[in-house]
Amino acid sequence: MTSHSTDLHDLSVTALAEQLRTRQVSAVETAQHFLDRAKAQQNLGAYVALNEEATLAQARAADALLATGNAGTLTGVPIAHKDIFVTRDFPTTAGSKILDGYLSPFDATVVTRLAEAGAVTLGKLNCDEFAMGSANENSAVAPVGFDAPAPVRNPWDLSRVPGGSSGGSAVAVAARLAPAVTGTDTGGSIRQPASFCGVTGIKPTYGRASRYGMIAFASSLDQAGPMARSAEDCALLLSAMCGPDLDRDSTSLDRPVENFGATLGNDIAGLRIGVPEEFFGDGLSADVRAAVDAALQEYVKLGAKLVPIHLPRTELSIPVYYILAPAEASSNLSRFDGVKFGHRAKHYTDLVDMYKKTRAEGFGDEVKRRIMIGAYVLSEGYYDAYYLQAQKIRRMIADDFQAAFQHCDVIAGPAAPTVAWELGAKSDPLANYLADIYTLPASLAGLPGMSLPAGFGAGGMPVGLQLIGNYFRESQLLGAAHRFQQATDFHLRRPLAL
Ligand code: GLN
């Protein structure tokens, strides 16, 4: 029934790279296969830009390299980027009208590094405007095949959200429209959509991946990371993405490039898994709790030990994040003024009027809300009461993690309190903010975190298990996830319609 080419989209990145190296498939054939799938499934709204010519040119170059036998780790593997990374060959919108018509003169460092490892770019993926959101319902951009903005749909149930802000990224992997993708995570935007769509995603330690060319939301929190079906594939991509970029990103860490897959095979017998009581409180829905509990028991079977721990300021991470992230956003987004890039209002009287009209027309409601909150908490008289207090509590949250890591090696819990909700069900911004409770603490502390498929909850929707590691322990996290994926098949399950 299945022809050779329809199998391509079921291959892992690791297997696909091997088939490309051994010339069982060509990079052009592979790229074309995924482009065809992206177009056939455009109802999902995952892609916002394709450029078939550019993709196939990259694939031909990959084939030429493969023919010489000098291939990199990802040569010929097609991937797609969240539309928050600037790219020369594709327009970049950050999900916003204000970047209408913008074409970057350079590629983001993450994009360049993946290209240097041999990856071929399939296109750009939908996301919440400036990565602000938890459901991908804040995108102002029309997906490929649409004339107007349309929701990104969860392939497990088309009436539900994919999560956000990297919603298009999670859907592309879940629906096999790309073998792997990039995402960004400021407060959970890789882990939560990975959880909602049943894929694996990791956000590294803050500073591991360069932010150069990644359109800034909250600079002290933003991190890039990969999403794929397995931890093994994420390790391959993450190894290519990370590394110092000291001249271009002042928060880039001066640590050597690492092979995060080197210890995937390590035994996890005796691994101490910290289980924070605060992640299992009243707000956690029963179906997610059951799936996460079962996943923890699977770890016990694999030889790990569960250690009860406390992260006492978990609840405070919501007000702290929703003060600090908007504060940084209000400053970062001041550059979108109609002068330098993208949209400019057509009719205005003078410069200030041009700024005002451009920003009023170009930004969506959620972005405006955050700019206003950010400007407010940074203003004279409120700075001490809000911004400074939030900074202090941020430090305490990071300290709480260090206290917890005295007793455990990794921390595990749910990635989100519920499975993916229905499109339009959370129109109140606060309801969205509250759903970030389990991802925000690691973001505020700058710790690496990931989500991996751990079971199914209400409506047959995927549930993600979140693993949080101490600084620079990405390999350990990916190893723990890999062991789980060797023993289970949740990450291989697929939405019925596919
Ligand atoms: N949901 C969070 C927000 O809306 C996190 C977004 C992100 O990680 N980019 O800010």
From TrEMBL:
<dbReference type="GO" id="GO:0016740">
    <property type="term" value="F:transferase activity"/>
</dbReference>
<dbReference type="GO" id="GO:0005524">
    <property type="term" value="F:ATP binding"/>
</dbReference>
<comment type="similarity">
    <text>Belongs to the amidase family. GatA subfamily.</text>
</comment>
<feature type="domain" description="Amidase">
    <location>
        <begin position="31"/>
        <end position="478"/>
    </location>
</feature>
<comment type="function">
    <text>Allows the formation of correctly charged Gln-tRNA(Gln) through the transamidation of misacylated Glu-tRNA(Gln) in organisms which lack glutaminyl-tRNA synthetase. The reaction takes place in the presence of glutamine and ATP through an activated gamma-phospho-Glu-tRNA(Gln).</text>
</comment>
<keyword id="KW-0067">ATP-binding</keyword>
<comment type="subunit">
    <text>Heterotrimer of A, B and C subunits.</text>
</comment>
<keyword id="KW-0808">Transferase</keyword>
<dbReference type="InterPro" id="IPR004412">
    <property type="entry name" value="GatA"/>
</dbReference>
<feature type="active site" description="Charge relay system">
    <location>
        <position position="165"/>
    </location>
</feature>
<dbReference type="InterPro" id="IPR036928">
    <property type="entry name" value="AS_sf"/>
</dbReference>
<protein>
    <recommendedName>
        <fullName>Glutamyl-tRNA(Gln) amidotransferase subunit A</fullName>
        <ecNumber>6.3.5.7</ecNumber>
    </recommendedName>
</protein>
<dbReference type="InterPro" id="IPR000120">
    <property type="entry name" value="Amidase"/>
</dbReference>
<keyword id="KW-0547">Nucleotide-binding</keyword>
<feature type="active site" description="Acyl-ester intermediate">
    <location>
        <position position="189"/>
    </location>
</feature>
<dbReference type="InterPro" id="IPR023631">
    <property type="entry name" value="Amidase_dom"/>
</dbReference>
<keyword id="KW-0648">Protein biosynthesis</keyword>
<dbReference type="GO" id="GO:0050567">
    <property type="term" value="F:glutaminyl-tRNA synthase (glutamine-hydrolyzing) activity"/>
</dbReference>
<feature type="active site" description="Charge relay system">
    <location>
        <position position="82"/>
    </location>
</feature>
<keyword id="KW-0436">Ligase</keyword>
<dbReference type="GO" id="GO:0006412">
    <property type="term" value="P:translation"/>
</dbReference>
<dbReference type="GO" id="GO:0030956">
    <property type="term" value="C:glutamyl-tRNA(Gln) amidotransferase complex"/>
</dbReference>
<dbReference type="Pfam" id="PF01425">
    <property type="entry name" value="Amidase"/>
</dbReference>
